[in-house]
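Sorry to interrupt, but I need a hand with the structure work. Could you add the entry underneath, on a fresh line?
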Amino acid sequence: MSLVPFDDRDGWIWLDGQFVAWREAKVHVLTHGLHYSSAVFEGERMYGGEIYKLTEHTERLFKSAEILDFEIPFTVAEIDQACKDTCAKNGLTDAYVRPIAWRGSEMIGVSAQDTKIHVAVAVWEWPSYFSPAEKAKGIRMCWAKYKRPSPETEPVHAKATGLYMICTISKHAAEKEGYTDAMMLDYRGYVAESTGSNVFFVKDGVLHTPTPDCFLNGITRQSVIALAKAKGFEVVERHIKPEELAGFTECFVVGTAAEVTPVSQIGEYNFTPGNISLSLMDDYAKMVRRELQPA
């Protein structure tokens, strides 16, 4: 199946307050965001005409921009509405939603105080991040070469484009070796997250998940914690050493794209998708589609 390039599609993209034909939504080659990663973004999902946790995502976009020292020239409410309007303009009720803000091309250099801040929203149909067959049996992961950096070295709590460079490298390396994804350690050697999702482990009916002190406390992660607690599960947030994985029976990753996806392997450690992983996978899918009351 051939891929349809993202720059050659029908539809509309919201750009700086107005709709632009998809193929005409362009930036200059000397855009600061391209050269210096001065860009922040969000990944959101619309289910049945409603974008899940829309305002929470938009608020995080604004916080990320603040961390990168620029101000988005719209309000949170205006970006919320732009996301809804872009889905409607493209005739979509189930979609992936991508808002992004970046520094423009007025200045090229490390200092870019006077660049214009641009904002765009693009939406498209996107099936499950992992195939149904992969989710049923659990995805296989290897260990990533690169680690999540220290908060003293990078703005780790911003959803900034530059922080995903090592994620792309790590996922490519994993796929070349026949794995679906890679698990990353943090700068101290603790288990952190995959290249695009947070991770949970199960032992004796208790959920364990890494403390998000050097990576994003994902919105899906927060939702799954609330859902698990509502179902009566204990959730422990703590630092987890890689060797502890030998004592866990189940594992799953969570994210806007991944939703809740069981894991069968991380490097030398194996897991069996069980009742907790599978029930949370099903309940999360029902919750975001409003078939189950939110936790």
Residues 54-67 form the longest helix (14 residues).
